[in-house]
Amino acid sequence: MDSGAVIKQKNQSKPVPVVLSGGAGSRLWPVSRASFPKQLWPLVTEKTLLQETVLRTCKQGFASPLIVCNQEHRFLVAEQLREVGVEHSTIILEPEGRNSAPAMAAAACFLANSDPETVMLVMAADAAIGDVERFIEVVEPGIKAAEEGYFVTFGIKPDKPATGYGYICAGQPLTAIENVYHIKGFYEKPDKAQAEKYLQTGQYLWNAGIFVCKASTLIAEMALYTPTLLQAVKQSVDRQHVDLDFIRLEENSFKSAPHISIDYAIAEKTKKSVVIPADFGWSDVGSWDVLWDIGRKDADGNVGIGVVELLDTKNSYVRSENHLTVLLGVENLVVVNTGDATLVMDKAKAQQVKEIVERIEKRGLSQARLHNRMYRPWGYYEQLALGERFQVKKLVVWPEAKLSLQKHFHRAEHWVVVQGLAKVTQGTKEILLKENESIYIPFECLHRLENAGDLPLVMIEIQSGHYLGEDDIVRFDDHYNRL
Fold first, then answer.
1. How much is the pTM?
2. Given pLDDT bands bounded at 50, 70 and 90, which one contains residue 9?
3. Which CATH class is domain 3-283?
4. N or C: where does the chain have the smaller number of CB atoms within 10 Å of the terminal CB?
């Protein structure tokens, strides 16, 4: 990333893709969790949903993307952008998720500091689009309408009476620009009977949550309809500071902004809203039945991902990470195995997964929010075993990365190198460890682990002690400013 690009955000004559990467996607639990939400997973293709989103506008006449994400995901987001060659991006960090309206307001205020007339193409990071070429074609009249001061949204032509989406009713066409319509109204997720009626009229469209507008238009409409929100977010942007290659919004101001979606805040109120009917293979990837619907199926209608074996099984979705999962003589099931949690359900109950997550969270179980694999700026760790007074982890440290200089009061650690070359600080000594070599870190010993090679460093860490919590870390130096 280029920190100069982060601060100046040049080349404002081009529309700026604004990617909102918030939310936990709890209906896709146990894969999607707050610590590692669905947009950061490869659920539809070999690329993650975030990567697919930012790549849509690359080499299409757009400026470098601006991503608004949770501060806890910053290094993972940056790494995923680097993996697909997206450079000079701007990453704005939210102190906490406040829904889409504050996120869009932050992007608009940030861009307006350079050029208020900047056109924003706002996309959620967790949706799939099958026909990117068609998407770019449909966006073009949206940009024209935005330049004329309209707040543009896109409505997907429905092919079934879906009850999981909000709807938009298209009204009279906008005379100046083809395929753009005034909006009669926005409608909440309907029941099945109402959805059938919407489908029959041909006037109702699924609300895709994709918007195009000028930064100045959004700011002006927010000043009119949600002035408190705008004031809080603008103050937060004005008090921003640069943290490595990221823009950190000021915490207190941002947290005082109302928690509200852009639909409720602006789209349903403004007289400038227009809609473009579209058909570019959009899916919100919001639940397991949707992933079954868009997935590649075998002759029996099954989608199988990972280590799975299916016999006499029909119309089911099965995803298994690292473990063998077998289905025999069943139909219409969703089975998801992530190693530390397993979900088995009737496919028709896909919308109720969120309720299960809430129940698990009330029980105080970490699986509701945290993954077995936890990403850090230096790489990630994965819990392999946990028992009384011991824990075993796998650590993967990226090339040129290093952990903080730290010590623990309540645990000792044994490190074994599985792959790569490790540079270990142990007290006042620095030691190089090759594959199959190990070292012991006693209680209260100042230590640091660094990847000294060109390949990812893979370690096995064995912790022992009466307390093994992640908060038993005292940092003395950190390359990633986590002191």
1. 0.89
2. very low
3. alpha beta
4. C
